[in-house]
Amino acid sequence: MSIVAGAAAERPVLNQALRAPRRWTALVVASTALISWSCERAPTHFAGAGSAQPAGADAARRVNAIAREYAAVYAEVFPDQLSSHDRLPDNSLGALGAFRAREDTWLRALAEVDLDALWGQPDWSLAGYLKSSLASSVALRACRLELWPAHQLGWQTSLLTSLDTQPLGTQQARAEALTRWQALPRYLATELQNLREGLRLGYTVPRPNAELAVVQLDALLAAPNASPLGAPLARDSDPEFQARWRGWASSK
Hints:
The structure is a single chain. By secondary structure, the protein is mainly α. The chain is built from ten helices and no strands. The two termini are about 20 Å apart.
């Protein structure tokens, strides 16, 4: 991983710009799911609790419904950020556009909720998490990060870090790992399509950042089993898995 660490040190500002959004969002999604779970089990004391349907109770139900849907959809769209280990994310522009449409829907739904009715309740914090995450994601769209991933923090670092935490050690885990990573060529073909669209629209990275990515990719191709691609080999000694993984990594 030294080529990754060395390249990252070259561009600290760009590093933060590219790393922070997805990590923050994944953290917020995990927190949102936990808070939503807690809110459903926590006792609530809304003003006017003796009435048939307190305003705060309705707001809490709506916020929790949005939170559950957001967490579920995020986990489906970005499996590499959470707990799915048998597939790579769909990095197509179409999939991203569909997710952004859902974000807009959730923000509109939150805007219709009377959040003042939740003041002093756990659901008020949950709503804040949701609004912050969704609004930040919407604001970041102007950067069009999906159109210029040819830099030192591209898939060769950000995606391959998932190899360090890929579950292994059982037949099912090995099968999931092979299924997931054998889809890498399709993922990379989509990255190329996104780059071409970015070039068409005038989105590119500075030349030094692209050159750092080339250095990293050359290192991966020169010795794939000694690179991050070979990380699972050190964590699972099953002979069949070793042979299949070496064959896959070498063929890339």
